[in-house]
Write a structure and sequence with these properties.
There is one protein chain. The N terminus and C terminus are likely disordered. By secondary structure, the protein is mostly beta strands. The protein is globular and about 40 Å long. The protein contains 1 helix and 23 strands. The termini are close together. The chain has one domain. The strands form 5 sheets. Strands 7, 8, 9, 10, 11, 12, 14, 17 and 19 form a 9-stranded mixed β-sheet that branches. Strands 4-5-18-13-20-6 form a 6-stranded antiparallel β-sheet, covered by helices on one side.
Length: 264
């Protein structure tokens, strides 16, 4: 029997993912994962060297929805619903707001700013495929990037602080027609709460990162310039152990529950 797990389901069917969590420092090594928040254009450019960078500016078949405010609860049509458009035959990534529910692609207009580059950003949608920028409006503000082919490093700009979790999978099965996304043997690699806004990078010791889950806080919440590669950056540094502070042996930081099913 293989245990198969749907990609992040809505927290309204709440559950806890409990993992050891460390107090965040701007650059630190957590076992096999190195997390950094880069602050200079030069450092960001160095991390992106040799990697694929998705800026969301020219996604084929997905122009995004023009918005002039960060209101929540506004229905998003097909032009802004992102699920498989950046999958690239399995070599790219899937963007989901839970299960096979799409994330939202938006074009900031009317004076809105905040994108890392250009004007397009990726944000979670609610269960009705409506905008979800503000936790005060009962928005989950959680979504996931899913890589069918494991990556060794991934980075992205976050507009607000977040809890971030990484997972490794034995197998990822995708049915684009249903649509359905099933994960076989998903294993937690890393969880970190209170990661500050900015350009966040995560580097593993091998190409074993399949899932990147985020739960963001504050408003507005979105990400930009998703960067990924199956090799490490030559500029990534591993901090000394003295820079790491323990915040506890175990902390249930990520409120994410995935539906479970079984197959022989």
């Amino acid at each position: 029997m293989k245990t198969m797990r749907n990609v992040v389901t809505r927290m309204k069917s709440a559950g806890w993912l409990c993992m050891p969590v460390l107090l965040f420092v701007p650059s630190a090594s957590y076992g096999a994962i190195v997390l950094q928040v880069l602050t200079t254009p030069g450092d960001i450019a160095a991390f992106q060297t040799g990697a694929t960078v998705q800026t969301f500016e020219n996604v084929s078949g997905l122009p995004g929805v023009d918005i002039t405010n960060f209101n929540s609860g506004v229905a998003v049509g097909a032009a802004g619903q992102s699920l498989f458009q950046m999958r690239n035959g399995g070599a790219g990534f899937i963007t989901t707001s839970g299960g096979a529910a799409p994330a939202g692609l938006f074009n900031l207009t009317g004076g809105l700013t905040g994108a890392e580059s250009g004007t397009h950003v990726l944000a979670p949608l609610d269960s009705n495929q409506a905008t979800c920028f503000d936790s005060a409006q009962n928005c989950l503000m959680a979504f996931e990037l899913l890589f069918e082919q494991g990556v060794q490093r991934v980075g992205f700009f976050m507009s607000r602080p977040a809890t971030i979790a990484l997972e490794n999978d034995q197998e990822v099965d995708v049915d684009t027609s249903t649509p359905n996304i099933m994960r076989v043997g998903a294993n937690p690699l890393f969880t970190q709460a209170n990661v500050p806004a900015g350009f966040v990078t995560l580097t593993s010791t091998s190409a074993n990162i399949n899932g990147v889950s985020l739960i963001m806080s504050g408003t507005p919440t979105f990400i930009d310039d998703v960067t990924y590669a199956r090799t490490a950056s030559t500029t990534t540094t591993t901090p000394e152990p003295a820079s790491i502070a323990l915040a506890g042996l175990a902390f249930c930081a990520l409120l994410v529950k995935r539906k479970l099913s079984h197959r022989a």
